[in-house]
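Standup notes
- HV: blocked on the assembly model, inputs below
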Amino acid sequence: MGQEGVGVDLETSLGYLLKEASSALRAAMEEVLRPLGMSVTHYSCLELLAQRPGLSNSELARGAFVTRQTMNVLLQALERDGYVTRPAEAPVGKALPTRLTPRGRQSLEKASAAVRSVEARMLAGLTGTEQSDAFRILQRMIHSLHGDNEGA
Amino acid sequence: MGQEGVGVDLETSLGYLLKEASSALRAAMEEVLRPLGMSVTHYSCLELLAQRPGLSNSELARGAFVTRQTMNVLLQALERDGYVTRPAEAPVGKALPTRLTPRGRQSLEKASAAVRSVEARMLAGLTGTEQSDAFRILQRMIHSLHGDNEGA
DNA sequence: TGACCCATGTCAGCATTCTGACATAGCTTG
DNA sequence: CAAGCTATGTCAGAATGCTGACATGGGTCA
């Protein structure tokens, strides 16, 4: 189409490239999760629960980078379908600790393998040093964006 | 809350970190664009048009990482509000080349400055070498995710 | 030329996520 | 102890984005 070599500056923006990479990763994850009937947020929630059992709704929301209202909708569906359980009453405060059911754990296994293969494909062609560099640089970007770089 | 140092493996995943960085960038952009009454997709569309005048709806969609249906809805609103113009009939094929109006260009100026300040904050604390490394590594990740690494 | 394929623009319906708002639990502080 | 602050869970409504579907323009190829 109309994409002759017009002067394009977006191609030099790290922000744009970051968005592109994240979009590509999300698309690749959706592609392998769709056959399993699972969305990315769906999977993120289960994975978080597998690694940190007993997380509350709000904690899961922060870990999956969505609002607690969005996570609440998802948790209600997951609970209804028998993937997770929450106590009827909060043991302390209002936070309801959530846990995977055996069914949830089983469902996660296949999804987790699929996602790991996507991440492996993404990292193929990167040396160990490059992966360490990427990790350190991304962490520093996040730190700066959160405004933790005051008074300096 | 319940976040004592439980063993967490998500903290070692580059995919998770990439999602976190992208989420932080998006949140920071939304924060500075909100006072201007502009969303991230809204801004992305205008910025693309400023750098590549005459892009079609489908091309804009690919550049902003949304579907062409989503971009079409946005373009109709932008056209209605006088930020962009599209010819009534396609000069060739079905693609309608879109262009910024003076009003659109003026609206973009403030937004572009705000977004540049966010990107500058994100990159603060990174050396020139680190920025080049990040650029190269992200490009390679995107390339691998798109499956361009066959036969090897 | 005609059949086929691909890309585009667009309409309609659905899914997902967000913002706003409210009540409650627990901690902090005077 | 009482007031205030923060965090949480939850409901309701709105915005945003996506999937599915259809018609059309243009190129390819037998």
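- HV (later): unblocked. The radius of gyration of chain B is 19 Å. Residues 1-8 of chain B have pLDDT under 50 and may be disordered.
- Next: hand off to the docking folks.
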